[in-house]
Amino acid sequence: MNGKSVISHVKNETTYNIPLVLDENVISSGITLISLWHTLADESYRVFWPRDKKKPLIASSWVVVYTVQGGGKMLLKDKSEITLNGNCVIFLKPTDIVSYHCEGLIWEQYWMEFIPTGAMEIPLSQMAVIHNGDLFNKELADVETLICSKEPLENNLAVAFLAKMIYQWICLIGQNGSRARQLIQIEKLLSAIHADLQRRWTVAEMAQQMQCSEQYLRRLFLRYTGKSPKEYYLDARLELAQSLLRQERHSVSQVADMLNFFDIFHFSKAFKQKFGYSPSSLITKR
Q1: In the chain, what's the furthest Cα-to-Cα distance?
Q2: Structure pTM?
């Protein structure tokens, strides 16, 4: 993948594209980690393989892409396209990838390339929607801290965490055929919400898409996400707003307008309640 670096010849630089592991492999129980990236991309982000790849393609390796928020699109050698919206995960063979790009305002994702060190039945090109993404997001943030440590034991612990998550994602995808119908429906709705956070979603519209009552929709959201429909939609918009404000080209009023907040006052109040600081403080840190 490409990144912002003085030695990089890749022209499609993006807002935040940090190689957490690239110079050397890290081995832990279950996997050998070849590379790990955390990327926050904008509309200009477009990568072509193998041209933009930092390491040679390895036939025995796998790529897992975990989309935190926003959306991206991938083109494979068989001419198929895969659309990824937060929160979702997919496993691919790196030799199958032709290109990928941001689809929409932003695409925040963790990109991991690894080689299994034991028996691991990995589902190819099958996607799973993560309805409790906050748990994985926190673990991945912890992995970032550990993998950047100078202590080898902490590096190995980070990869052990990643191996655990990879097994969890494999299990989630493996359950695709046996999941309850209501879970499949709620996952489709969550994917639709993340794909179009600029839309002014109402609970009534969500219930209509699910073909259920608003009361039943609320029960489903609380069961599978731990939040009400309104809370989930608000949190998703605020997390997207936080990422947009880290980009140099957006003001607080522009972000509030883009994400359909009533006005800048309501946006700032909700933002501070969630994150503990005002949106304008991100502007001053640029």
Answers
A1: 56
A2: 0.81
Q: Are strands 97-116 and 31-41 parallel, antiparallel or unpaired?
A: antiparallel
SS3 assignment, position 38: strand
Number of helical H runs and strand E runs in the chain: 9, 9
Provide the CA 226 distance to its chain's centre, in angstroms. 19
- Written as six digits, the tokens of 259 are 């994400």
**pLDDT per position as a tens digit, 21-50:** 545 566 566 888 888 899 988 888 999 987
Superfamily of domain 16-176: Regulatory protein AraC (2.60.120.280)
Amino acid letter, 161: F
3-class SS shares of the chain: helix, strand, coil, % to 5: 40, 25, 35
The radius of gyration of the chain from alpha carbons, rounded to an integer in Å, stands at 19
- How do residues 60-117 score in pLDDT, each as one tens digit? 899 999 999 999 999 999 999 999 998 899 999 999 999 999 998 899 999 999 999 8
For residues 154 and 157, what is the distance between their CA atoms, to the nearest angstrom?
5
Task: Work out the burial of residue 24: count CB atoms within 10 Å of its CB; fewer than 13 is exposed, 13-18 middle, 19 or more buried.
Answer: exposed
Q: Which contiguous run of DSSP H or E holds residue 110?
A: strand 97-116
CATH number of 181-284: 1.10.10.60
Q: Is residue 48 helix, strand or coil?
A: strand
Residues 255-261: contacts with CB within 8 Å, 24+ apart?
255/279, 258/105, 258/198, 259/197, 259/198, 260/198, 260/199, 260/200, 261/237
Domain ranges of the chain: 16-176, 181-284
Strand partners, 36: 21, 112
User: 39 has which bridge partners?
Assistant: 17, 109
Bridge partners of 275?
A: none
